[in-house]
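OP here, attaching both records as promised.
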Amino acid sequence: MRWLTVFAEFVLVPLLVVAAVWCWRNGIQTTVFQPQGEVPQYNATRYAGPWLAVGAVAAIGAGLLLIDVLARAFRRAR
């Protein structure tokens, strides 16, 4: 049963990392305003808090699961 848990967590860690990267990238949006007349080009960056928060929680969860999977996999039997 222990190895089934290790395998499930081992599969879940990369999924959480991918989810964290996807959420983080959706949380940062850059808009480019083209120059008009004498006004130069302007780049505006918008940070969406909920996306960044979910990305951070997913990254923390992936880190904790990685620590847990390593502890379970290399624990010595008594």
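Record two, same layout:
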Amino acid sequence: MTQEDSNPIESFVTAERATHQQPRVKITGLMMQYYHVCERELWFMSRGIDIDREDANIRRGTHIDETSYRDKRKSFQINGRINIDILDSGDVIEVKASSTLEKPVRMQLLYYLWYLDRIVDIKRDGVLAYPSERKRESVILTDNARSEIRTSIRRIIEIVERDTAPELDKKPFCDACLYQDLCWM
């Protein structure tokens, strides 16, 4: 077992900080969100099997994201794949159409906060915003959240490196999933 295999988090951090090295798996915020929704969804996405971006719900969510807080935030990209929005206050904001999948969205935002803290050495707090519900929530990177992010990173790496998709696991939102045809055919 190599050092990289024994500590995937430190390997990931080292590769992310290095300008000449690439991590085994390039984890994005969307991957973190997908992991907390469905491991199969994450695996499909990691293989370049993308959802229908023209779906009405996807277009609605994109519209809400692009038009909400437009004058109060700036977008940044880190290492070519981490896309974050910063409010004028300095908080990282994640805008979603609905709070239906609140934990996966929170984990996505916590991943951004962890990434900024651990990789870029910038400490920030976050805000989850659901404009259509007129709901906002503060998110802080706690020690428990850091631990959960590290566990999630390990599992994401394991899932993405698998040769086959994880087993089917029927969930309440499977009927609305844009990957359902791949799973339930």
